[in-house]
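2024-03-11 09:14:02 DEBUG pipeline.ingest accepted 1 chain
2024-03-11 09:14:02 DEBUG pipeline.ingest length=209
2024-03-11 09:14:03 DEBUG pipeline.predict start
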Amino acid sequence: MPSFAEEELLEAAGYRLVAGIDEAGCGALAGPVAAAAVILPRQCNFPWLNQVKDSKQLTPAKREALFHHIHEIAVSLGIGMVSHEVIDRQGLTLAVRLAMKLAINQLCPPPDFLLIDFVRLPGVRLPEKGLTNGDELCFSIACASILAKVARDRIMTELDQIYPGYGLAQHKGYGTREHLTCLRRLGPSPIHRRSYQPVENIVHEKNGT
């Protein structure tokens, strides 16, 4: 279960506005990558706290409920989205960093320290710490992972209405067997990531190259 150990150490060192940051959608074959940043209250004691985990370990219904709880109590939060075009053009690493920076820029009040799941953010003029498996260990990062996942899932559900036939509302763009079957039958949609090998291979198959 994630804990407040990192936040408490930083508070003892004099930091007051610590933001947890995480992404969602890196492994998807379609749609944007999302990132969320959240600053939680220093005295965080709510009955739903023990339900918070890495978003991948929660059901969609539980994520939605926690999304609303986190929104209600957050000192500040931000969500950044970066499109599939940027992912294809600049690469996933730069796209994730851009999404995180967009999320951080929305924080008001701004943070004085960043706790990030694994990634480092060069060019951001704030002290930071990247934590391996941060969404499993750090409460602020776990909350950010929930915010990012729910925000992106909602977008993918909307995109399912624009690009029907792929099942985007069900698998949210990830490379499930059903998704790959639809991709081979229909070919990639405008929001599929051409730089990802499964999509690239299907494009070549369709073109006979």
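2024-03-11 09:14:41 DEBUG pipeline.report Residues 139-162 form the longest helix (24 residues).
2024-03-11 09:14:41 DEBUG pipeline.predict end
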